[in-house]
Amino acid sequence: MSFSIQVQHLSKRYRLGLTHAGSVRELANGVVRRMFGRSGTEPHEVESAEPERAEKGEFWALRDISLHIDQGEVVGVIGKNGAGKSTLLKLLSRITYPTEGRVDLRGRVASLLEVGTGFHPELTGRENVFLNGTILGMTRREIRQQLDAIVDFAGVESFLDTPVKRYSSGMTVRLGFAVAAHLDPEILIVDEVLAVGDIEFQNRCLGKMRSVAESGKTVLFVSHNLASIRSLTKRTVVLSQGKLLFDGPTQEGVARYIAENLVKHESPTSISNAPRAFDGLDQKLRFEGLRLAGLDQEGHLPSSGAFHLEASIHAEEQFEGLQIALTVLTDDKSPVGSTFSEVLSAPEKGETATLSLAAKFPLAPGRYHCAISISNVRSAGKQIHDSLTDVLPFSVAVSSITDAQGQINWNPAWGMVRLDPLTRCTDR
Amino acid sequence: MSDESNRITSITPVEGWFALNLGEVWRYRDLLYLLAMRDISARFRQSIIGYGWAILRPLLTAAIFTLVFSVFVKVETVVPYPIFAFAGLMPWLYFSNSLTGVTSSVVGGGALLTKVYFPRLVLPLAKVGVGLVELALQFVVMFVLMALYSYVPGWEILLLPVFVVVTVVTALAFGIWLTALNVRYRDIGMAVPFLIQIWMYLCPIVYPLDVVPERYRALYAINPMVGVVEGFRWALLGTAPPDWTMVGVSLLVMLVVLVTGIAYFRKVETTFADII
Predict the structure, then answer these.
(1) Counting C-beta atoms within 10 Å of the first and last residue's C-beta, which end of chain B has fewer, N or C?
(2) What is the CATH number of the domain that holds A155?
(3) pTM, whole model, 2 decimals?
(4) How many domains does chain A have?
């Protein structure tokens, strides 16, 4: 089959700091430097969290990406903020140009990096449909043919001749997506547009994208919503720090992406600095270290399912007791189950103590991680002091599930939990 | 499958100078048309006088000029001063408004530029349309004024469209340079209103061309708006025909500015989205 999108060794470099010639002073500095052959001011040192991407005031937003996408494929693109997703889309949409490498695209490309691009608040809905449509590459004739369908999809019939500035934000977004949904390109590039609109509209958008995909168009879909990535795409590209981390089946791609987000090191600093589950935690009881004991070198849980957690907790105030809550999640973030500790004695004020907790998790083969929180038990309503998600990764090996006959080939359709063995009742 | 659906677009790093590639702009003519219409129909929305402003502004300016330069200072003109001034003001106001619009077109279109691809040249091109509607209205006023002063245009009026086109292209030529530069150096946006202010005095708008000493005329004609203003007056009022050498110089300057402007614009347009 012929390609639809072909990306070869694509790289994009940005200059850090000033992206233009700058002020007269810098211009003068440059001239002085050239005239006397000595250095004027050095470009300011940039401290970057990712030193390998930033060098000498330059930053590689994308580095050496190669992709081959066939016609009719629906490909998801995921990655953390700053991984280069938006840069890739901007390059594919010809908004910005690559520093190295090349891209070949077959057919018309419609990119939806934003809903309602070019809407003018003073113009009516109808005028904006035409404007937005031509911006996205339609002709006026095509829009006229589709106008009824667009208006119907957006559900704004009675407001068609009202200026868009009088629209609610939801109406504006619906109208914008409706125009985009009725483009008829060979390649559709969508960036996170589903984050807006209510649930009903989001479902309608997803449905529309699915039908676009089924009609043999190529769709490139960027999202942080792993559920919609999984339901729409079979193939997923994972970007990390400007590089291609993974390109393959969605199920595996999503797993790689989640694994990348886990807090891997259990040192006190990394746990202390790890992002918290939500804002407003007082951290009067605070996790300083989390470790799973008894894992083998690949991070497998023992075949018995014994789960042994060591949690270092620092107390800033005196508490009578604390309780730990733990949720186990699959690698696509679906919770498997939760458990609570008994009431434990809290460390003395200002002290750190390590608690050792054990449980038994009879889980199906796969990769898992945990979310964990501490609350005190003094008050009637429990107060959560610290909460972490994406910690304590572990896995369960396929080989760990055995019965008397040997290894059992666990089917994912059987669920995530191995229930207790069925045994014959002897007493009646 | 149609050609459109099979055409391969290649995206590669940008090197060297671009071909003018105006064919692509033609393919996006619908967008050009709608962007121009957007500006035209949004221009005076929610104002009571609406397009009355297009008439009021030159009319009041001409009235003030008449007061200052005909009553106070007593500039000698062949035709009555009000129509002399109005005829000169029409192309000038169109030029200055369009130049301002075109200069800010790319920076003002930043929201579009960073979200979707289209030939960037569409942005400045779309801006010259707004003024044409105003210009058309002003012609109506001009004919009323001429009737009041019992002026009947001669055959020269047939050449008026030529001078309108030259005005449009001149505004575009300078505007394309300025708008491309404005993306990188925002000083341009600051300088343009001032530039327009002094530029007006370098055009024979408030004074007739005769007052410019003969030996400076060639230098004076480098300003392409000189030929335009003189041409407008000649076509409308049948004043002395413009010096065709001067018109030639004006046209030449305009063409050089236009071609180099488009070339420069196409060279830097790939970086607009990164800089804006």
Answers:
(1) N
(2) 3.40.50.300
(3) 0.73
(4) 2
